[in-house]
Amino acid sequence: MTIHFNDISHYQGTSFPISGPIIAKATEGSNFTDSAYASNKKRTLAAGHPFAAYHFPLRAATASMEAQAAHAKAVIGTDTPTMMDIEKDINGHWITRDDCLRQIDIMQASGMRVTMAYIPKWFWEGEWDGASLTPFADRGLVLVSSQYVHTYSDSGPGWDAYGGVKPGIWQYTDGKEEYAGGGLHNADTNAFKGTEAELGLVFQNGNREDDPMTAAEFLALLKDPQVNAYFKAVAWQYSGGGIDLASTLAAMNAASKAANDADIAALEAKIDELTAKVDALTPGTISGDLSVTGTLHVTEA
Questions:
Q1: E strand or H helix at 199, and its extent?
Q2: What is the pLDDT of residues 208-261, one digit of tens each?
Q3: pTM for this prediction
Q4: Helix, strand, or coil here: 22?
Q5: Which of 51, 77, 75 has the alpha carbon at shortest distance from 204?
Q6: 289 and 155 in one domain?
Q7: Based on the domain organization, do 159 and 106 belong to the same domain?
Q8: Using CA atoms, how far apart are residues 76 and 55, in angstroms rounded to an integer?
């Protein structure tokens, strides 16, 4: 199964009906925010379709990687999947591959879900000199190719690998020519081999099969009052919680207790041995009682 969907910006306006997944422009550089982004996101999610934002990174001479990443996060946040839109800007300039990778690193480290990279083959060949794209895949990003055709085909050229990476999404038209497959008129249209639900997982996770939850996201989840209350209510978490004697957890608890008992017995034996050595010392050398608190580490002389 192949589905077709659009990526859009303020150029398409906000009056058209949302009938499928959408990738919408959110930011460019360090200070531009697309005026239709908030509306496009709200309408897509309200219609029950997968949604992702895209960020257009600019060269370092225009704005630092840190400033651009901070602006993207301020607008997009950490919950919305993000695609990097990598191509020439309006002045014919472009970001280098290494700067782009560094900006992605900064964005991902801040908690953003950067999961896709739109890198047209013509751009990759001409401006990046055919450099390897595997560092993008290594960071979990799905490659979105771009090669326009008059008629879409599941065996078309946009599915061919380049830079060592096979595309997961193919942008096959800008909507200005007749084509087969549907999509919003005068809007970039993409193909994905899979269901809408599967595309939603690609939006969320990129090429990773599991959910790439960051440490910050995990800690925030644990601090959530509802999650915290739930775990406090789970009986087996606490002594006297009514654990089934035949359960795996009970067996684990028993094994742990046995190991602890053996450790305590070994420690007591060492204490007895040490006490005997102390008693054998010349009378009057040590006065008072010998007591041990906490963990005692004994080393043979």
A1: helix 196-205
A2: 875 556 666 777 777 777 777 766 665 444 444 444 555 555 555 666 666 667
A3: 0.69
A4: strand
A5: 51
A6: no
A7: yes
A8: 9
